[in-house]
Automatic annotation (TrEMBL):
The lineage of its organism: Eukaryota, Fungi, Dikarya, Ascomycota, Pezizomycotina. It holds the Pfam family 4HBT. This is HotDog domain-containing protein. CDD domains: PaaI_thioesterase. It comes from the Eukaryota. It comes from Penicillium cosmopolitanum. SUPFAM superfamilies: Thioesterase/thiol ester dehydrase-isomerase.
Length: 194
């Protein structure tokens, strides 16, 4: 079975329940695919093992014609389900804070990727030749993120400005929907070549 195969999630009852939620659509997590350019290598190589992130599943909330900031339609919320190993610990049984921040950064950024990929939004964050980058990421650590185990990360678009700035909020939750960490992130369309 592939490390990110959706079937592995159905053995975790609360995750299986999330996957049956018809308000969300499950899509491939393309950041887990190895690319010759080395783009996404942190998640496609370094953090892709049974001892680190042994699973990463992406979903987006089905858009409605009036969803999104200002009622513009499009994908405004995603959730990512991670299966965590123990080799990312800061303390025994606790995910390192830097990895918590990395996961929140990745998930908030993937919201823009999915908006672009599925043409679900009136902005074009990732038009050919353009790149978005993190301008800031403010993280609040509320409770330890336990390992090994599964977590769900939500990201929601809060605001769009000038078709080049996107404010997104994210949160990491456990199986009881208890919030473990939150983030507010601003992405901007880069003016320089990356």
């Amino acid at each position: 079975m592939d490390i990110d195969d959706a079937a592995r999630y159905h053995s975790i009852p609360w995750v299986s329940e999330l996957l049956q939620d018809t308000a969300f659509v499950t899509v491939p997590s393309t950041n887990r695919d190895t690319k010759s350019s080395t783009e996404d290598s942190l998640f496609s190589v370094t953090l892709k093992s049974n001892a680190t992130l042994s699973g990463f599943l992406s979903q987006y909330r089905r858009p409605t014609p009036t969803s999104g900031p200002g009622g513009t339609g499009g994908i405004e919320e995603v959730r990512m389900i991670f299966i965590l190993g123990s080799n990312l610990n800061g303390y025994p049984g606790v995910l390192h804070g830097g990895i918590v921040t990395t996961i929140l950064d990745e998930c908030t950024g993937l919201l823009l990727v999915l908006r672009s990929k599925y043409k679900a939004g009136d902005d074009d964050a990732l038009a050919p030749g353009s790149k978005t980058v993190t301008a800031y990421l403010n993280t609040n650590f509320l409770r330890p993120v336990p390992t090994p185990g599964a977590i769900v990360v939500y990201a929601k678009l809060e605001e769009t400005k000038e078709n080049r700035k996107w404010k997104i909020k994210g949160r990491i939750c456990d199986e009881d929907d208890q919030i473990l960490a939150t983030a507010e992130c601003l992405y901007v369309k880069s003016r320089s070549k990356i």
